[in-house]
Amino acid sequence: MAFDSPMLVSDLWYNDGNIVLQAESSLFRVSLGVLAARSPVFNDIQTLPRSQDQEMYGDCPLMVLPDKAEDLANFLRAVYNSGFFAPIPSKTDFDMVAGILRLSTKYEIPYLRQRALLHLDTVICNTLQDHEARESKRTIPPTNFLAFLIADLVHEMDLEWLLPTVLYLCTLSFEGITIGYMHRGERRWLNSSQQVACVKALRPLIKWHRKDILSFLYWTNVDGCKSSARCNKCRLALLEALSSHKLINALGPFADIFEQSVREAFCESCYIASRDAHLAAREALWEALPGLFELPSWEALRTLREEALKLTGS
Prior knowledge:
This protein is an alpha/beta fold. It has 15 helices and seven strands. The longest helix has 25 residues.
């Protein structure tokens, strides 16, 4: 065995199981038939003749797997219990999604892979409308450096269609890009290609934010404005306040950033014109995101997403 003191996982130790799986120091006694019914990989294993030097655990063949114990535990629970890893909009967490995505891909269980991908879709969106609404629809709760964890998973699993949004979210933490981040007591980093892509995109994002997203703050005359002196004074005050911000969320919704201050200070004409200009600039930036990270177009990336979901049984 790979470990001197393996531990039985009690809720995945079935007395009628006919194979023992080991991942790291954890043991799982399960039915090979149950796994084979869902996974062609395990079905192939089931058809293999048992060799004479087969390692045993009690009266069951022992199979040592290179998977993480936590991943395998969640994967097996999802296979055995249809309610354990429920589809959206049921809540889950990142580690469960990541582990089940890895192993459902490896062991070819399409419906679980699709389910995991759709959970990721609730936090890493491919339209601005969905991106703005994600807090009300997300099934994976926010945690420190979640975007970086997802970026790592995207690289590992080749989920290219998620890259524009997840890399944009990573640019919101310069510290995370440059010196890494802590996860479960370990310092981790973006892979080098993602790190370079984020650093290269920072300057264009800052320029886009100042020149286009905030363009309405440079106006001096707005058709229908009833109080140009007051409105211009408000624009200047907002520019001064924003110039001190180190964190630039260029895609932040107008309502989250300006609604209260602009509503109170701008006349109705300036408010409506500012809101509409801000939205148009964010929509243009969203469409430009793939290019900023040197990725294929949104159209091509959305096609990849659709193909991935179709291949997984959608």
